């Protein structure tokens, strides 16, 4: 049952009511979700909310706020409810056609961007494999304008979303779009780098994910097969053929997959294999080069 408060039509009242409803529904991070939703509703920063607590909501804001409350209380992830997600300081469209961008993936992009030798090439060629919403490809295109960026996905709907996001940021024509499976269709030595955030959750762990993820985000973007390595293994097998020498690979992985992915990379002829931790201290990235 949805609660109400006497000042529900003010910014502060709306936040308090939503926060209470989310907590009552057992939804985690209720305070942060309520504040992000309010900031989006007002078109302001979260830091401004306290000063605007007594501000009345307009009729249009109350109507949109009611729709947001219904979606969030139904367990819809915040980014899907808002229709946007922030990534690397930019705003991208977000909807169930693709996985919601995570902070860990921002770290993956930062590690790729910090590969100085790669980006010092005359015209580096990098592929974002399994592009999803396109945030990796678009960010690389924006941050490294000399580079030739490719974006691949086996989902036509995800690729449409990625192209919408590229258009939003003015780089659609600077990215080559490919509908297909992993690195299929790339010729020998066609790339200098491969970046991938592929599905890596083991199939039997899907049911244990939090409901916002399990019930709303696309399963095909989560399910990595029995051991979570099905697609990662195939990508690592394909990469040596399409990478020039030297070539680089940057992967996001599950926190318990470091040893297995490192072994796959070594078997594929990669050197300088490194398993790196994210800001939470979990093994999350596999980085390597081939010569």
Q: What descriptors fit this protein?
A:
single chain; alpha/beta; 7-stranded mixed sheet; 291 residues
* Number of extended strands: 9
Fraction of helical residues: 25-40%
Give me the secondary-structure category: alpha/beta
Strand order of the largest sheet: 5-4-3-6-7-9-8
Radius of gyration: 21 Å
Number of helices: 11
> What's the overall average pLDDT, rounded?
96
* First-residue to last-residue Cα separation: 62 Å
Describe the structure.
It is a single chain. The protein has helices at 11-24, 30-42, 59-73, 78-82, 103-113, 116-119, 135-143, 156-168, 211-214, 230-242, 258-267; strands at residues 84-87, 90-93, 125-129, 148-153, 175-179, 191-196, 243-252, 271-277, 283-290. The chain is of the alpha/beta class and 291 residues long. The strands form 2 sheets. Strands 5-4-3-6-7-9-8 form a 7-stranded mixed sheet, sandwiched between helices. Strands 1-2 form a two-stranded antiparallel sheet. It starts with 10 loop residues before the first helix and ends with a strand.
Write the layout of secondary structure elements.
Elements: H1 11-24, H2 30-42, H3 59-73, H4 78-82, E1 84-87, E2 90-93, H5 103-113, H6 116-119, E3 125-129, H7 135-143, E4 148-153, H8 156-168, E5 175-179, E6 191-196, H9 211-214, H10 230-242, E7 243-252, H11 258-267, E8 271-277, E9 283-290
Parallel strand pairs: 3-4, 3-6, 4-5, 6-7
Antiparallel strand pairs: 1-2, 7-9, 8-9
Helix pairs in contact: 1-2, 1-3, 2-3, 5-7
């Amino acid at each position: 049952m949805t609660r109400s408060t006497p000042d529900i039509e003010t910014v502060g009242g709306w936040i308090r009511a939503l926060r209470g409803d989310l907590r009552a529904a057992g939804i985690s991070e209720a305070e942060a979700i309520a504040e992000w939703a309010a900031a989006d509703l007002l078109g302001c920063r979260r830091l401004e909310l306290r000063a605007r607590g007594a501000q009345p909501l307009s009729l249009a804001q109350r109507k949109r706020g009611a729709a947001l409350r219904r979606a969030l209380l139904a367990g819809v992830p915040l980014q899907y409810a808002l229709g946007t997600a922030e990534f690397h300081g930019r705003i991208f469209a977000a909807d169930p056609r693709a996985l919601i961008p995570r902070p860990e993936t921002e770290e993956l992009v930062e590690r790729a961007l910090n590969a100085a030798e790669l980006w010092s090439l005359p015209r580096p060629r990098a592929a974002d494999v399994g592009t999803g919403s396109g945030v990796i490809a678009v960010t690389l295109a924006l941050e490294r304008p000399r580079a030739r960026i490719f974006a691949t996905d086996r989902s036509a709907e995800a690729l449409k979303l990625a192209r919408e996001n590229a258009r939003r940021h003015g780089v659609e024509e600077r990215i080559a779009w490919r509908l297909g499976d992993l690195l299929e269709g790339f010729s020998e030595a066609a790339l200098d780098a491969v970046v991938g955030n592929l599905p890596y959750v083991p199939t039997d762990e899907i049911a244990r994910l939090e409901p916002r993820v399990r019930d709303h985000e696309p399963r095909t973007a989560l399910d990595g097969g029995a051991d979570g390595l099905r697609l990662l293994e195939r990508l690592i097998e394909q990469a040596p053929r399409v990478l020039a020498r030297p070539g680089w690979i940057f992967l996001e992985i599950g926190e318990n997959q470091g040893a297995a992915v490192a072994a796959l990379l070594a078997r594929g002829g990669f050197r300088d294999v490194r398993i790196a931790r994210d800001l939470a201290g979990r093994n999350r990235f596999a980085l390597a080069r081939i010569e």
